[in-house]
């Protein structure tokens, strides 16, 4: 099994399929982002081999991330194959929604019901300002189509100085829609360093602001939760706040991240500790591959602060490279 030295059972794999994205959100990547060459990406065959192996040793939940997963060709075939791996109980995906509408039938066919949709504003002009693209209506169409097809939708909003005046608008979405709106503390993973001056709105400030208008009831947080969950009184949906920068929930982390180029990260704030692409392309068998991953997992840091303290990079990489 994949167990670290603190006794945490790692059963959740987040795997990126590309570093490319069709949006250019300021907090996620620099304007001069250099994308890797296609041959540097894990192939679908390599991803399936890896997930199948890890599923035999405790991984039961897989989230496909990017970049934007739907910009990669034939992504639907990968999703279907992931869903057919015997010990994988849940496959989910994180997307910006621009291309999602045309893939809804494929998601249904692959048995995927959980979709995290990234949306940081409900205003068309601000969307253009934040993403540098004019695809706001495409994202809204995807959002409503997912709900209409009974997907479990989590709407991810990164709270920044430019959108704090919309926090209550996002909460209002949950009044008549069965959606979970998740407010995420901004993190420094934009590949620029200088563009991030520190956290202005932490999770407690976000909650206090919401409570100026809404009565919130605390919900039971799932095991290994990265968010604190609440139900606004009288609302169909719910909200959650993710202390991504405050890192107050790191101690129960059950996650393993693999970047689009095969880099293994045992913590979002830490370094790449292993490259499974290189191991596989150098011909290692599954026994050796598993041993290397188990060793990396065993040395997983206790929390994000410990990982950041030992990280080598002075300027954190962009989120699109890390894989979310």
TrEMBL record:
Kindly list the cofactors needed: [4Fe-4S] cluster
Q: Name one GO molecular function term.
A: GTP 3',8'-cyclase activity
| Keyword Nucleotide-binding carried by entry | yes
Instruction: Specify the superkingdom.
Output: Bacteria
Matching InterPro entries:
Aldolase_TIM, Elp3/MiaA/NifB-like_rSAM, MoaA, MoaA-like, MoaA_NifB_PqqE_Fe-S-bd_CS, MoaA_twitch, MoCo_biosynth_MoaA/MoaC, rSAM
Tell me what reaction this enzyme catalyses: GTP + AH2 + S-adenosyl-L-methionine = (8S)-3',8-cyclo-7,8-dihydroguanosine 5'-triphosphate + 5'-deoxyadenosine + L-methionine + A + H(+)
In this chain the Radical SAM core domain maps to 5-227
Q: What is its EC number?
A: 4.1.99.22
SMART domains from the UniProt entry: Elp3 (SM00729)
* CDD domains to which the protein is assigned, alphabetical: Radical_SAM (cd01335), Twitch_MoaA (cd21117)
- Which protein are we looking at? GTP 3',8-cyclase
Q: List the source organism.
A: Pinibacter soli
Q: Which gene encodes it?
A: moaA
């Amino acid at each position: 099994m994949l167990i670290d030295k603190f006794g945490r059972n790692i059963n959740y794999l987040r795997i990126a399929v590309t570093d490319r994205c069709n949006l250019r959100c300021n907090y996620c990547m620099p304007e001069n982002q250099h994308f890797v060459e296609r041959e540097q990406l894990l192939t679908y065959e390599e991803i399936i081999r890896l997930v199948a192996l890890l599923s035999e040793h405790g991984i039961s939940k897989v989230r496909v991330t990017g970049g934007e997963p739907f910009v990669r060709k034939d992504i639907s075939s990968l999703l279907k194959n992931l869903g057919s791996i015997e010990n994988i109980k849940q496959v989910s995906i994180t997307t910006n929604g621009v291309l999602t509408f045309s893939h809804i039938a494929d998601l249904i066919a692959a048995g995927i019901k959980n979709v995290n949709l990234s949306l940081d504003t409900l205003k068309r002009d601000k969307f253009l300002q934040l993403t540098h693209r004019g695809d706001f209506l495409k994202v809204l169409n995807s959002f409503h189509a997912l709900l209409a097809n009974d997907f479990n939708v989590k709407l991810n909003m990164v709270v920044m100085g430019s959108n704090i005046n919309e926090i209550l608008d996002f909460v209002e979405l949950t009044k008549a829609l069965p959606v979970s709106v998740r407010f995420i503390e901004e993190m420094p993973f934009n590949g620029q360093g200088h563009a991030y001056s520190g956290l202005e709105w932490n999770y407690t400030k976000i909650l206090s602001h919401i409570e100026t208008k809404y009565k919130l009831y605390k919900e039971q947080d799932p095991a290994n939760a990265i968010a604190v969950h609440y139900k606004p009184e009288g609302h169909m949906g719910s909200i959650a706040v993710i202390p991504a920068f405050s890192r107050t929930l790191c101690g129960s982390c059950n996650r393993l991240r693999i970047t689009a180029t095969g880099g293994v990260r045992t913590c979002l704030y830490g370094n790449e500790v292993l490259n499974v692409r290189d191991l596989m392309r150098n011909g290692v068998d599954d026994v050796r591959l598993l041993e290397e991953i188990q060793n990396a997992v065993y040395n997983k840091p206790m929390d994000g602060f410990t990982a950041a303290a030992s990280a080598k990079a002075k300027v954190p990489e962009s989120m699109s490279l890390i894989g979310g």
